[in-house]
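Practice problem 4.
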């Protein structure tokens, strides 16, 4: 009868196993909680308040602008529109009921706090 002796070599400890660095949180990210989403009628009312124009004049322009923006984003176009910023498409996922588009908005720092000054003025 032959007996085999199996000896295993002791496991070599490496520097990474014994002196592994401890993970450290460098920056704490705080979630931003937003309020309820603004719906189109409230958006129109805010534009009326901001511009001083009549609602009957503002409503078709806002609706057309939303339609144009929606088609641009759905078509994969990125939008640069100061003072809003740069709107970039990060991910698109097609589902049976909708196209899910994840966007990133780069909002410029140092934007004037008075948005009335940034409204387009008629050149006369």
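Answer key:
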């Amino acid at each position: 009868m032959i007996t085999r002796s199996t000896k295993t070599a002791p496991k070599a400890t490496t520097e990474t196993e014994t002196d592994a660095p401890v993970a450290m949180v460098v920056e704490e990210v705080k979630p931003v909680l937003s309020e309820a989403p603004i719906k189109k009628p409230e958006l129109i009312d805010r534009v009326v308040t901001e511009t001083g124009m009549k609602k009957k004049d503002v409503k078709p322009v806002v609706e057309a602008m939303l339609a144009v923006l929606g088609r641009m984003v759905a078509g994969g176009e990125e939008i640069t529109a100061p003072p809003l910023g740069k709107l970039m498409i990060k991910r698109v996922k097609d589902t049976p009921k909708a196209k899910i588009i994840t966007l990133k908005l780069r909002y410029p720092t140092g934007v004037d706090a008075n948005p009335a000054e940034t409204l387009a003025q008629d050149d006369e």
